Structures are given as structure tokens and as C-alpha cells.
Amino acid sequence: MKFFSRKAAVASLAALGALTAVPAMASPASATPTQCSISVNFSNTSSNCLGGTGEHRIVCFYTHHIPGVGTIIGRGPWQPVGATSTTYCPQDRVTNTFVEVR
Asked: So which residues are the signal peptide here (predicted)?
């Protein structure tokens, strides 16, 4: 009894080969900024990255001055490596600050 014809076997192998090649081409390598630092100046917080490629921005979580309002998120503009991203961030009410990269 014959299960597969030669054409069916060749077509199956070709399809399998195509499926295994797709993950290798899925996405190009992406580099992100490196050597990032955070600086504080009165009510402003900034980020600057010195290496890599891509963009970065400063993100700051702080508590609103009116009780019960809750947490506010301040985000600086996306900037390329070597440029500074700055946002308002009152230092007496900060709960978290970090650099976001892409």
C-alpha cells in the first residue's frame, strides 16, 4: 500500500523547509541606548545616554500635592543618544524614576 506519492513528499518537505526558515528572518537585530544616567535639578529630572543607538526618555512617578489625587507619571520626550530628555518631577514627592529605552 502506497501512503504518499513522490510529489506529495516533495511538497511536504518544501513546506517544512519554508516554515523553518521563517523564524530566522523574524526580526532584525535592534540596539538600544546604553550608559544611561539620571540627573536631578530642582523640580526637573533628566536622562542622558552616551552609547548604543535608538532613543531614550526619562520617566518619573510622583505623588500629587493634593491628598487623594494619587500618582502622576511624568514622561520626557523621546531623544536620540547624546541628547537629554527632561520632565517635571518634584523631588519631595518622587516614588520612582527610570530611563525608558527603545
From this structure: 1-26
